[in-house]
Amino acid sequence: MEVAETVARARELFAASPRPFGFVPTMGALHAGHLALVRRARERCAAVAASIFVNPLQFGPSEDLATYPRDRERDLQKLEDAGVDAVFVPDGAAIYPAGFATTVDVGAIATTFEGAIRPGHFRGVATVIAKLLNIVCPDVLFLGQKDAQQAIVLRRMVADLNFRNEIEIVPTVRESDGLALSSRNAYLDAQLRAQAPTLYAALLTVRDALQAGKSKSDALAAGTAALSAAATLEYLDVVDGSTFAPAERLVPPAFVIAAARFGTTRLIDNLWITQ
Ligand code: AMP
Question: Is residue 177 in some structural domain?
Fold first, then answer.
């Protein structure tokens, strides 16, 4: 597996890739969710690249940039074992050199839910992905359903700015008790870890209530009741699967989305209703 640390080396490496060429951007701390994206990319593409970059631009001032789990050697080994052909592992100065000034704003879709609670988050995400797409030039960008709003925001950006790649959204990988795999699950102590699957339970409750014909407000109330009383709910809603605009009914494609704090750890999850 080739490892590029500079933009120049990455361009050289990726220009020679067989096509179709798949790309899986990550922030490292890799788990089976990330590796599902790699597996899907390998199924579909002749060559697969990944990146590891903890993007400072998408973290708010009071967020966990400094403590975000980092383990470069372990991550590189996992990517190699998963069959990735080349990895881009830039440092901060390679991506944001002195004088860097241009950012990407995706409009209203990036200002609700995650965008409202984490102002500037999607500007950071869109900016770094725009840069990575211009450096790597893949045919297919693989993104996780786990970060559904991120995927929809990036679909908007790719369409609006005429990037040449497609986007494929890969279903969320979960623990056996339903908790979506996330690098941030590592922050949970045993008690919080035991409470965390209730976020998924809340989503299932909302889906089941809506499918049983309950009103949206009744469904959301039932979902809220399914969440651990020790957790702090930030949002629970039903949104259109293409626009992420709140929806009254569960008409596919749609997402049931939720965010909650378990102690100081913030978790997000969603159900993707496709039919
Ligand atoms: P991150 O390293 O958190 O930026 O995530 C990198 C990519 O992996 C993003 O496209 C995420 O949506 C995706 N991802 C994270 N967790 C999961 C999961 N549990 N299942 C599937 N994809 C995931």
Answer: no
- Asked if 139 and 165 touch (Cβ cutoff 8 Å), the reply is yes
Residue 36 CA, closest ligand 1 atom number: 21
52 and 101 fall within a common domain: yes
* Mean pLDDT lowest among 25-34, 60-69, 260-269: 60-69
Question: Per-residue confidence at 240, pLDDT binned at 50, 70, 90?
Answer: very high
The pTM assigned to this predicted structure is 0.98
Say yes or no: 69 and 129 in one domain.
Answer: yes
99: in domain: yes
Instruction: Select which of 10, 30, 34, 75 is catalytic.
Output: 34
Give Cα 42 to chain centroid, integer Å.
Answer: 19
Q: How far is the CA of 180 from the centre of ligand 1 (A)?
A: 10
Identity of the residue numbered 183: S
Model pLDDT, residue 225? 98
Q: Active site includes 31?
A: no
Radius of gyration of the chain (CA): 19
Q: 182 in ligand 1 pocket by Cβ < 6 Å?
A: yes
Mean pLDDT of 123-143: 98
